[in-house]
Structure formats: C-alpha cells, structure tokens
Amino acid sequence: MNMRPLNKILAGAILITCCWMNLANATLINRGNGMIYDSVQNITWLQNANLSGTKMNWEDSLAWADSLSVGSFDDWRLSNPDPICGLAVYNCTVNELGHLFYNEFGLTQGQGVSSLFSGTNANFNLFINVQASVYWSGAEYAPLTASAWYFNTKTGIQSAGNKQKGLYYGWAVRDGDVVAVPAFRSLAIFGLGLLGLAACKRQGRQRAKLGAV
Q1: The model's pTM
Q2: Which DSSP symbol is given to 55?
C-alpha cells in the first residue's frame, strides 16, 4: 500500500533532518584545498602535517605558520598546548594535538602515529605526511621562557623543549571553519520539526473523528 502524501512528506522531513544532524555531529571533515575541519575543537588543520618539509626551532616555526596563506586564509598558527595538564604528561586531550591524537585517531599512551601508517584509520588517513616525531606548540613554557611547549606524536606526550636548540616540526592550524555554515540550517530543522508535529496532530484528529463515527 502506498503511503499517504502527508506521511511521505513527514518521512522526507525526518530523513533530511537526520542527514543534517549527522553532518553537524561529524568530527573531522575534509574541506578540500588541503584543509581538515575539526568540528569538536572548531579549528581547521592543514591536511599536510609537514608542509614546511623541514624541522625548525620554535621561533622559525612560529614565523612559518604566521606567514602561511592557504585557501585564501592567512591567520594560521601553531597548535595550542594545555599548561593545566602539566609537563611530561600523557593523555592530555585539551591540548589541540593531544585531542587529535587520542580522540580522533584513537591512539593510546606510547602507541604513536607510526602504528597507523599502513592501516585503515579513516580519521588519520584524512591527513598526509604526519610525522612520528615532535611538533612545536605555539606557546612558551611559562616557568622557563627559554623553552616552549611541544607534543610528541611518537609517544603521545606533552612536554617542553629549548626554543633555540630544539629542532621540531610545525603543524599549522587556524580557528574556526573555512566553509560558512548556511544560516537557514537551524531554521530549516526547526521548521521540519514543526511539520512533523503538525502531521502527528492532524493524524490524531482524523483518528478521533473515525472513532466517534
């Protein structure tokens, strides 16, 4: 038996709503042009985790990220650490790279990204040239300003190294998304919800009339 027109509309509305909700709940999204959006942290990573092609000291790494222009955006920076986690610690997921390492890549303490090089981890495979090594963060280590924070993707540790003597990689990131979210999305979802509610009420009234006959 064919569905009634009202039921078809309701089914379509539910399907569209579910699709939009799934999109909104996505974590890592390939935006193209070498950029990956993290909807949980609301930041956009460079897809190429070694775009510079070389290790640098901290100041050169900062300058490199600041000079980048990718996808018409020029507000790139190095990732943020989390000083509250502390020095030489694992499982620091508030650290932006730590969140990517532990939450998105699903790695554990001491495991390292090299375990994913030839695997089928969908999140990890969105990126290229991820190094199993040390990446500078964009902040000084306050107790010793000759040092700066870093994150080691070989072990999953957050720590700090000498700004001048330490030669590590840089992985640029920027705040926010690189694609504007349609302003009508929320209104559309709300409207579809009202449509479903109206359909349910209408069917309820029809059943009540039939029961009264």
Answers
A1: 0.76
A2: -
